[in-house]
Amino acid sequence: MLPVGRIADALQQQWCSPEADPFALAYGSAKGPASFLADLSAFLQRRTQAPTSPNELMVSNGNSGMLDLVTRMVCKRGDTVLAEDPTYFLAKGIFADVGVQLVGLRMQPDGLDVEQLEQYLQTGQKVSMLYSVPIYHNPTGISLSSAKMAKVVDLAEKYNFVILSDEAYLVLHYGGGGSLPPKSFFEYDKGRGRVISIGSFSKILGPGLRLGWVNASASWIQRISEHPIPESGGGYSPFAAASIHFLLKQPKLAPSAPALPPIDSHLDHLINTYRSRCSALSAALRATFPGTPFLEPQGGYFIWFPLPHDINADDLLKFSRSINYPLKFLPGNWCGTTSTHGPYIRLAFSFYNEQELKEGVSLLHSLISQYQASKQ
Ligand SMILES: Cc1ncc(COP(=O)(O)O)c(C=O)c1O
């Protein structure tokens, strides 16, 4: 699914034409090139149906880099950061490195438990930041409802904390049941400067690009772009931004035949493929483990699946490794913030075709049988 041909086309257009701009190789503006931000804002607007202003965007080196930078800007060592429980497992390492205390909030079918959040805040415990993956959450696939997003921003305003919204899966919406594409958390900020949304090209073009964006109030964009790192380095990933810019540009066709930029047809292809993979994996899980409840997500990469018989996924992984078993899954506990998620596994459907996913589910079934037999 990594679009080598499209990247090659974009590189050709950007670097091999007589108009190639050599300054794209120089230190750039700390926010990223203005023309790139204009095309990025149009892309986000098309794909999320939410108005997105170029003044509220800057180029980033992907969400991992911004998780670190924003956390360091907002928090100091020992501060409390709230997060969904479970959460994106590699973010935990970044927070540990900054030295903040992570406190988990329960997940519900419509996202984090806002009542629990409010009760926590009412205790008077100071919270510096809420880290959320609100759209097609990693690992559960759940999305935070718009009513909850609005409420969380109200709470952030009342209790004076920042929301760092990790939107790595924002535009990977598969559209089940005629549902609308989700909007960025920043859409609910309404000028209060509480929400910093971070988005990434990693899941739609390729993580090797190290390219993403920040969508936040103009004053936050100013503050982040004035950080010594983008100031000294001339913005984030200028080569990657220049190299894929062609994919975000409207093709120069006759005005009678307006066409969307190449990234849209690529994204449509990804969405169709991932939708089929998600259905194939869900169908295989339902057929193989009848009666086991799990959410079939409407976007993103993951299914959060409870193992039958309350099997502990860490033990199952240990057993699987001990017999060199050819199956990959992430044990739920790796994603835990406050509580444990022993019987859960995170299954990613993005990487495998439908046949491989079906085979993967029978492998899982057989692994569980072998594991149970080994216990008797
Ligand atoms: C929730 C979440 N945030 C961040 C990342 C990493 O993003 P990036 O490649 O933009 O650094 C991932 C990748 O799996 C992710 O799932």
Show unreliable segments: none
The oligomerization state is single chain
Q: What is the CATH architecture assignment of the largest domain?
A: 3-Layer(aba) Sandwich
- Domain module tally: 2
What is the name of the CATH class of the largest domain? Alpha Beta
Q: Major sheet, described briefly?
A: 8 strands, mixed
Instruction: Specify the structural class.
Output: alpha/beta
Output the helix-strand order: HHEHEHEEHEHEEEHHHHEHEEH
What gap, in angstroms, lies between the N and C termini? 43 Å
Shape: globular
Helix content: 40-55%
Q: Numbering strands along the chain, what is their spatial order in the largest sheet? A: 1-8-7-6-5-2-3-4
Question: In percent, how much strand structure appears in the residues?
Answer: 5-15%
Q: Indicate the radius of gyration in whole angstroms.
A: 22 Å
CATH topology of the largest domain: Aspartate Aminotransferase, domain 2
Q: What's the total helix number? A: 12
Instruction: Determine the mean pLDDT.
Output: 95
Ligand types? pyridoxal-5'-phosphate
Number of strands: 11
Protein name: Aminotransferase class I/classII large domain-containing protein
Domain Aminotransferase class I/classII large: 24-312
GO molecular function: 2-aminoadipate transaminase activity; pyridoxal phosphate binding
Describe the structure concisely:
With 376 residues, the protein is of the alpha/beta class.
